[in-house]
Each structure stands twice: as C-alpha cells, then as structure tokens.
Amino acid sequence: MIRISVAAAAVCLLVTACGPATGINSSACRSARVESQEATDRLQAALTTQARAGGGVSREAGDALVEMSVERIERANREMNRACELGLPDTATPNTAGAPEPVRVAEPTPLPDTPNTRYVNVAMTEERSSPGGAVVNRIYRGQRLEVTDREGAWVRVTELRYDPRWVRASDLSRERPAPLEQPALAPDLMDPRIQGIPGVGEEGHNEADVRALRMASAQLLASEQCRQVEMGNRSVNRSGVYWVNCGENSNRFFTMRDGEPHFCGRNADAC
Fold it and tell me: Euclidean distance between the first and final Cα of the chain, in Å?
C-alpha cells in the first residue's frame, strides 16, 4: 500500500534548481515543468479519492489511483531532469565514518493495461498542442500513455482538464514494443555503481550515446571523483553534449573526442 504526501511529491519538482544555463528557457523544460505540476495535481486527487474509502470508493481502488499517480510523478520528474538539465539536490548529511550506502527504492509494480493504454512504438514521437499543432514535448519508444480522445489520425493523451497533448495514432501500439538488443560492453562499463543510464532505444538513445555515457561514468569512478553515478543523459540544448550526475547539486557535462569523454564543466555552455 502506498503512502506519500503531496508536499513530499512537490519536492521532486526541483523547479528552483533551474538556472539560465541549465535549459530553463527551452520549450522542453517549460513543458516538463507543467507535466510535473499536473502529475502532482493528479496525486492530490488520488489521495482525496483514497481518503473517501468506505464511502463508495474501495480501498483497493484508492490505492490503485495513488499508485498510478506516483508512477506519473516519477515519469514527469525524469523528463524534467532531462529537459531542464537539472542536478540533484545534495541533501545528504556527511558521514565521517565512511561512504554512505546509496538509497535503493523498490521498483513500482507495473500497472495493468486498460483498453485505452498505448505504447510508443517508434524511436521518438512528438506531443503537440492540437492535432498537427505546435510541438510541446518529445516522447520515446516504450513510453506508456493513456488515450482519452481521437480526432482523425491523432489521439489525445492527457485528461480533459489538463492542457491538451496530441500524438499521431500510428506512432502508438496496444502492445509494449520488445526491448532492443543491447550492445556487449566491457566489464568496467557495466560497473554496478553506474546507475540511471538509458539503454539503446530508451529516450531516443542509440548505441553511441549509451557507450559515451558509460565511458564517462567509468572514467569518473576510476579517477575516484565519484563514488557512484546516479544518472546520465544527452544535453537537450547542445548537440553532441552529454551529462552525468554523481548525486551532486549539478551535472558534469562532457563531449566525445577521439573516442574518449572530455569533461567541460558544470553546465552545457562550457562545452
């Protein structure tokens, strides 16, 4: 059974961490911030429904709504961290007795599909403000959506009380696409301390992207600049630029030159 407060969920929004050099002015970042707020609103509604258990709403139904809302918040926060190029807030208390153990969060139980569940079946597709309208977000292969309406070749994937987002129906399927084949990597690139790196086909990453992110992560671990890499991704605003984060309050940006990662600094503009 899930227990979570809206205040705790709101902390995940990290809106105040955005700065001029982090992608805050990009349309992708603005859209991701809206999505994060929408996800928190959904959680508030789900908690209200759960609180009415016994008054016409079963406890099981309330828990299911909360679980779905938590999944949406996690998805929204991942997208915002990628789009705004945020670091992670460094709130851990220093441990002078030794390196702290990383916190492990249990994976949520996958939600059952509904008649309206669809999955992105192409490498990348765009969410638009109306059928054929302005692009407001990009979504990637395997991402789960719930269709709420249809207009010709387009389907709406947001609830009616939220800003509309429309996707080409042909880019979605009822079945989750099979995982893509992953490259064989050297043991140091598969170090278990390297976490949060997308695989091939996830968020539009190809094999070169995956290798670059893992090589940079392995370099930081080998040089003892990081104890653990918690996530990494491509820069939204700078082509050919990547970042990884070691649980700090800013990302480490790098480019690939001559097949090796070269770190630039703590913002994409430094590259």
Answer: 45
